[in-house]
C-alpha cells in the first residue's frame, strides 16, 4: 500500500521531533553511566558496552526490518508486515525542498514553484518518525542488561539482543505504538482495539524489559558470592550523572511522544517533571525511615522510578495525578528492590524492582487517576470513570508481561543450551572486563596499594549482613 500521507512537513513539529529523537538516544549513554556506576570496578566497561552495543545491533535491525514489523500493516493482530518497509523501502524519496519560481527564457511565464512532497507520519517526515522510534527500541534492549551484570558473555549478549528485539520488542511495539493511519491502515491491537493508554512505553518499554530482565537473571543464575558478599557500587558520581542524563533525555521520550510541537508536548513535559520530583523525594523518605539514611543512590533510583511510572500516564493525568503516581512509584519501587533477596533471584541492578514494578504502577494508575482535563481525555476510577479504563490497562499490561516472559524464556534457554550464556567461574572471579574485553577501567597498578581496595570501598544502602536495599 502507499504511505498514508505524502506532502510537506511542518517545520516546527519536525524540529522538535529531531531534537526529541536525539534526546532519547542520549538516554542510552546515560543508562550506561547509571548502570556502570552501580557495578564493581572490574565490570564497569562491560556494563557500559552492553548499553552501547545495543545501539549498534538494534539500530541496524530497525532500519532493515524492525520498523516494518512494528509499523507495517497489521498481520493477524500480532505484527506488522515485515516486507512493507523493508530497508525503509518507500520512505526515503520524493521532493524534499520547495523550489522558487524561476522566470523562463524569452519572456515566457515563470515556472511554477514545486512544493515539497515526501512521506509523512502525521505532520513530520516519515524518516524522522523512524529515527524517533528507533531510539525507543535501542534503550529497551539496553535496559535488560542491568539484570545480568558481571556474568553474561558479551558475544551471547549481542545475539540475545538481536533475537529479543526481533521476536519480542518489534511485535510488542506494533501492539502498543502502531495507530491507524499513521504508518499503516490497520494498527496494533492494544492501541486501536483494546484502547489501553500507554503514551510513551510503560508496557512496550518498561514492563517488557523488566520481564525480560527477570527471566534472564533466573536463567543465568546468581553471581558468585551473591548475596553474602558485598557487591557495592564502585562510582556513585557515575550513577548520579547517568540519572541526570536520563531525566534530561526523558523529555524527548515523553514530550516527544506527542509527535509534534504542541500543547500535548507541553502538558506531558509538566506531568513528567512533577512525577519525577515526587518519586525522588518519596524514595528518599522511604530510605530514611527504613535504613536511617537518605542516599545518593536512592535519589538517582527515585528519579528513574518516577520517570518510568509517568511514562505511560503522562498524557492522561493532571498535576495531582502525576504527584500521586510519583509518590506511589517512589515508595513501592524502593520497597520492591528488596524482593530479589526474598525470592532469591539476582537482579543485579534492580531492573525488576524499578522498571517492571514502575511500569506496572504507571500503567494501572491510568485507570485510577486519569482525568478528562488531560490530553487523553479519559476519566479513571477516582474521577468518576468507573473501571472501564482500568481493565483495559490491566489487560494491556498483562499481555505484554506474559508475552515477554514466554518469549524471553524461549530465547534464553535456546542460547543457553547452544552457544552458552555465562562466564566460567575463573573469568567471573577475575572480572568480566578483563575476561571479555581485555581491558580495565582503572589502572590500579600505577596507584600501588591505594588501588587494591577501590572496587569495594564505596558505601551503599545495602548492608552486607542483611541486605535490604541495592548493590551493584
TrEMBL record:
Low complexity bias: start-end ranges: 454-472
Chain residue ranges for the region called Disordered: 453-472
Keywords: Ammonia transport, Membrane, Transmembrane, Transmembrane helix, Transport
Record's keyword annotation contains Membrane: yes
InterPro entries in the cross-refs: Ammonium/urea_transptr (IPR029020), Ammonium_transpt (IPR001905), Ammonium_transpt_CS (IPR018047), NH4_transpt_AmtB-like_dom (IPR024041)
Compartments where found: Cell membrane; Membrane
UniProt-listed Pfam families: Ammonium_transp
Residues covered by the Ammonium transporter AmtB-like domain: 15-442
Membrane spanning residue stretches: 15-35, 47-71, 124-145, 157-179, 199-221, 233-252, 264-285, 297-313, 319-339, 351-370, 390-415
Domain of life of the source: Bacteria
Membrane disposition: Multi-pass membrane protein
The keyword Hydrolase is annotated on this UniProt entry: no
Protein family per UniProt: Belongs to the ammonia transporter channel (TC 1.A.11.2) family.
Protein name: Ammonium transporter
Natural source organism: Rhodococcus antarcticus
Amino acid at each position: 500500500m502507499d504511505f498514508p500521507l505524502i506532502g510537506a512537513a511542518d517545520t516546527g513539529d519536525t524540529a522538535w521531533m529531531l531534537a526529541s529523537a536525539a534526546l532519547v538516544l542520549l538516554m542510552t549513554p546515560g543508562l550506561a553511566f547509571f548502570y556502570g556506576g552501580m557495578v564493581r570496578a572490574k565490570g564497569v566497561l562491560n556494563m557500559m558496552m552492553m548499553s552501547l552495543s545495543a545501539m549498534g545491533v538494534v539500530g541496524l535491525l530497525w532500519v532493515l526490518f524492525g520498523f516494518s514489523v512494528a509499523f507495517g500493516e497489521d498481520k493477524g493482530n500480532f505484527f506488522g508486515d515485515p516486507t512493507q518497509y523493508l530497508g525503509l523501502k518507500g520512505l526515503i524519496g520524493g521532493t524534499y525542498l520547495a523550489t522558487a519560481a524561476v522566470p523562463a527564457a524569452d519572456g515566457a511565464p515563470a515556472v511554477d514553484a514545486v512544493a515539497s512532497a515526501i512521506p509523512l507520519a502525521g505532520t513530520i517526515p516519515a524518516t524522522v518518525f523512524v529515527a524517533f522510534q528507533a531510539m525507543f527500541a535501542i534503550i529497551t534492549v539496553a535496559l535488560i542488561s542491568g539484570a545480568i551484570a558481571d556474568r553474561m558473555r558479551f558475544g551471547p549478549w549481542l545475539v540475545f539482543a538481536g533475537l529479543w528485539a526481533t521476536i519480542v520488542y518489534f511485535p510488542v511495539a506494533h501492539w502498543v505504538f502502531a495507530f491507524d493511519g499513521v504508518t499503516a491502515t490497520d494498527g496494533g491491537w492494544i492501541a486501536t482495539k483494546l484502547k489501553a493508554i500507554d503514551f510513551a512505553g510503560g508496557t512496550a518499554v518498561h514492563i517488557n524489559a523488566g520481564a525480560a530482565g527477570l527471566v534472564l537473571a533466573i536463567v543465568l543464575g546468581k553471581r558468585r558470592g551473591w548475596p553474602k558478599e558485598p557487591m557495592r557500587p564502585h562510582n556513585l558520581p557515575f550513577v548520579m550523572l547517568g540519572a541526570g542524563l536520563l531525566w534530561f533525555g526523558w523529555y524527548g521520550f515523553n514530550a516527544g511522544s506527542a509527535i509534534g510541537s504542541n500543547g500535548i508536548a507541553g502538558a506531558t513535559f509538566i506531568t513528567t517533571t512533577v512525577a519525577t520530583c515526587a518519586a525522588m523525594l518519596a524514595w528518599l523518605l522511604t530510605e530514611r525511615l527504613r535504613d536511617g539514611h537518605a542516599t545518593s543512590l536512592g535519589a538517582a533510583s527515585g528519579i528513574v522510578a518516577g520517570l518510568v511510572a509517568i511514562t505511560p500516564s503522562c498524557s492522561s493525568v493532571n498535576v495531582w495525578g502525576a504527584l500521586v503516581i510519583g509518590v506511589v512509584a517512589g515508595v513501592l519501587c524502593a520497597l520492591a528492590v528488596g524482593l530479589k533477596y526474598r525470592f532469591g533471584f539476582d537482579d543485579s541492578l534492580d531492573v525488576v524492582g524499578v522498571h517492571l514494578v514502575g511500569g506496572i504502577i504507571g500503567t494501572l494508575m491510568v485507570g485510577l487517576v486519569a482525568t478528562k482535563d488531560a490530553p487523553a481525555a479519559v476519566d479513571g476510577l477516582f474521577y468518576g470513570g468507573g473501571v472501564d479504563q482500568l481493565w483495559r490497562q490491566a489487560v494491556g499490561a498483562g499481555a505484554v508481561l506474559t508475552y515477554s516472559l514466554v518469549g524471553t524464556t524461549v530465547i534464553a534457554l535456546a542460547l543457553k543450551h547452544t552457544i552458552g550464556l555465562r562466564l566460567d567461574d575463573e573469568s567471573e572471579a577475575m572480572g568480566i572486563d578483563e575476561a571479555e574485553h581485555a581491558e580495565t577501567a582503572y589502572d590500579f597498578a600505577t596507584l600501588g596499594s591505594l588501588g587494591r581496595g577501590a572496587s569495594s570501598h564505596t558505601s551503599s544502602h545495602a548492608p552486607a549482613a542483611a541486605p535490604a536495599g541495592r548493590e551493584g
